[in-house]
Amino acid sequence: MATTMSAKRQETETRDAFLTRTFPTLPKKGIEDLERIALSVHYDEGELIAQEGSYASGVYIVRSGLLSIGKYATHGREKRYLRFLAAGEMFGLEAVFLEREPINVQFAKAIVDSELVFFERSNILAFSKDFPQLFADLCRWLAREVIMLEFKLTREAVESMDRNLALLLIALANKYGEKDEDGTAKAIDLPVSRQTLAEMLGVSVETLMRALKRFRELKLISTEHSRIWVRDFDSLAQRARVSDFYLSIIEETL
To answer: Taking all residues of the chain, what is their mean pLDDT, rounded to a whole number?
Structure first.
């Protein structure tokens, strides 16, 4: 089971400790130099971080909060959500790997108040010349991204609502869950609306509410205002019906 990144830990963890976890192949000197070129930025709920088609100025890493990544329809301004990024996840890698002038091929938006760490393109490229180990960590992230996108394409086409909800709850609980006093359940302490959860699943709010009711009746979860308490992780994983390999990726990735 992946290590839980609780809201409390996100608030108290120093930036260099966060970077050490995010880039485990870098030596201490590399983390110190990386910390010098890092810029901490804050985005309010609903604020646009990167616009589709704009210049990709650098790499962003989510330190706390939750982001949506998506694209606009060819005609009109209808949005299609592709990914959701939680703590430890990043976007903007085209700024590092593309030789041509990098362009944001998707938009990024803060779903809740979010703290990010930003690295400007020229700075991160200069840093990589002294610490090429950086590419091992970036490639590790890209590999996870490819696996998750492939999985999502298949899952959305053939899987049931209940399976998708089970997977989402597992991922959110591991990223944002805080254990109750006796350690038997985790509360997803994330201030997002049911509308946002429905968008993350690509369904209507009504469909989501019916699924949450089924899960409550099965005693997989309980709800209290905006909180969702995950009561039975093992049964949720069984309901999701995925291999241990994919489950380990899902626990770390939204």
So the answer is: 85
